[in-house]
Amino acid sequence: MTKSRIPRVVRDYLAELDRELAGVPDEVREGIVTGIAEELEGLDAAAATSRITTLGGPAFIAAEARAGAEPRSAGSRSTAVALAPPRASAQRWYVVVTAALLYVGGLVVPLAGWVVGIMMLWASPLWTRNEKLIATIVPPAVGVLLFGIFAIGGSGFPWWHALLFGGLVGPIVASFVIGVILSRRGWFRAGA
Amino acid sequence: MQCMTVDVGAQLRKGVVEYCILGLLATKPTYGWKLSEALVSRGLIASIGTLYPILSRLRAQGLVSSFDQQSDAGPSRRYYRVTESGHLQLATFREQWGPFARTVHELVGEDTE
Question: Disulfide check for A142: which of A82, A101, A174, B92 has CB 3.0–4.6 Å away?
Answer without folding.
Answer: A174
